[in-house]
Amino acid sequence: MPYPDSAGSPQKAAYIHVPFCIFKCGYCDFNSFPGMESLFDDYVDALIREIIRTGREQQHANRLDSVYFGGGTPTVLPTDKLINILAAIGDTFGLAEDCEITLEANPGTVDQRKLALLRSAGFNRLSLGMQSLDDEFLSAIGRIHTAREALDAYVWARSSGFANIGIDLIFALPRQTLQHWKSALNTVVSMDPEHISLYELSIEEGTKFAELCAKGQLDLPDEELRLEMYEAAIAMLTAAGYEHYEVSNFARPGFRSRHNQVYWRNEPYFGFGAGATSYVNGVRSVRLSDPRRYVEAINREEDPVEFSERLTGRNRLAETLIQGLRLLEGVDLRRFRDDTGVDAIDAFHEEISSLVRNGLVEISEDRLRVTHKGLLLMNDVAVELIPA
Ligand code: SF4
Q1: Tens digits of per-residue pLDDT, 299-354?
Q2: Cα dihedral 136, 71, 286, 36 in deg (nearest 10)
Q3: 131 CA: nearest ligand 1 atom
Q4: How do the residues of the chain divide into helix, strand and coil, expressed in percent and rounded to 5?
Q5: Cα–ligand 1 centroid distance for 135 (angstroms)
Q6: CA nearest 181: which of 163, 154, 199?
Q7: Nearest residue to 356 via CA among 330, 323, 327
Q8: How far is the CA of 73 from the centre of ligand 1 (A)?
């Protein structure tokens, strides 16, 4: 069967990666490096050059309706540097009037003045990495801030005019009980953020936690407790009026993350900076992850891309289904047909039948979506759909 090989509509989103942190958290396998302050100036110059160069190559690009600064810890950069990067993006591509401009912030790296300046410069959505509201857990996982500082950052963000704030929390931390977790959720709900993301702690190779785990020094909640924590969160947050719209994400009506929906719908986007991925004209490209090598490549006028692949045929369709199934509204099968020219149910007949038989997905009203059981077993859903 012939499959289409382009990614459809032009990109309207851009991701900017800031690969710097003050300290490496014990669980973290993101592309982030502490102790690189001396590279900040050169890195920002290189980033801006990459943005401008891409703009010249993509002259037909749409104005952007989402810009996302992630990391690492973007807020370790001086305020004027963040503002300069945003200005370069705006000058190069243009920003839609209602562009969602998100900044990830570590509570240990912001103060009232910084947040107010960033808000005035156009950042309009703040994603606060609180992770826990208990100093004992924060210290155990290597965060640089206390619970008090996280709460202060939230209050400062509000008083600086951020009307769209997301809070990230991690659950299944070492020695965390269901009571601890519920108490953190209660506190967060009482703060009334627009968006809440919940991530289950996973032990990734190469991290300090992987070492501790191998030595039997991490007292992690068992599978049953982790499921209980996730289910308790769903119950508490939906009862508090949050829409559970993606496996890990909850939002007040009208406040879903526009940027992340681009990923979940497998739509195209620009990516800039060390380790950043882009998906442009059907090609997924990953930039050099080492910030120094990234800067050197840009300075030599070379392409800073380390790896790229054209997503074609069945792989692209499978990826669209896997990403789309993360959204609780599921995959719109009519739209899938219109965008790809392929009927998903026919193309993945065997895989989808097996998932339906096992109670992991269901088809209704021309949508394919995960069941509650499928939501708890997302990996099994993805594994079934990945082409052999
Ligand atoms: S602040 Fe975030 S990116 Fe930096 S080390 Fe911690 S988890 Fe990783």
Answers
A1: 999 999 999 998 878 888 999 999 999 999 999 999 999 988 999 999 999 999 99
A2: -100
A3: 7
A4: 45, 20, 35
A5: 17
A6: 199
A7: 330
A8: 7
